[in-house]
Amino acid sequence: MMNVLNDDRKDALTEIMNISYGMATAIISDSIEAHANLHVPKIHIVGTEGLENYVNSKTSKKNNYFVSVQVFINKLDGESIFIIDDKSALQVAGIFMSDADETIENEDDIVSSIHELSNILTSACVGKIAELLELEVFFHPPAVDKQSGEKIAEYKNFENFSKIIVVETVLDFRQEKIHGLLIFLLKESSFEHLLIALDKYIEQYEI
């Protein structure tokens, strides 16, 4: 098994992410009691050495961002990072809280909404891959903090990870389009398990 994502595997990964986002859409729509739609416009596989430049190309040093980090463990071992600018985060919080007849009182309310959204996205995407592999995966609660655009790509030392999957996310809430980055950091053994899942999916659905 070559440790690469060929065209068939990329197509399979895109389909799996779309299925996962469909699951996430249903959960979010139920949560806010209104229609929501999530798109996966682009998926990129980058090496750890290329992540900083990629994130910098998608963010602005002038903005502030909310960053949610969530660890998942077992045979799928890694972390997810969800990045959303503060204006979009405020929109998300307003939508989530208005449907609960609540108003935003402070930054903690925004953090809580991003915590909920990122947890739904990570659980849906990683959970679907785990389902294909017929294995359990365990999630730690997300940790959310606010960072300046100048520091956004300086998350941590990436030496423990070998492959990075970046999902450019578009969220349609009513009349608003909200953009974010969902990044999966995988260790080498976990990437190998991902390839097994993709090959199984390709064989099952004859992609």
Automatic annotation (TrEMBL):
GO terms for biological process: chemotaxis. It comes from Geovibrio thiophilus. The lineage of its organism: Bacteria, Pseudomonadati, Deferribacterota, Deferribacteres, Deferribacterales. PANTHER family: FLAGELLAR MOTOR SWITCH PROTEIN FLIN, PTHR43484. It comes from the Bacteria. CDD domains: CheC_ClassII. Keywords: Chemotaxis. It holds the Pfam family CheX. This is Chemotaxis phosphatase CheX-like domain-containing protein. Residues 72-160 form the Chemotaxis phosphatase CheX-like domain.
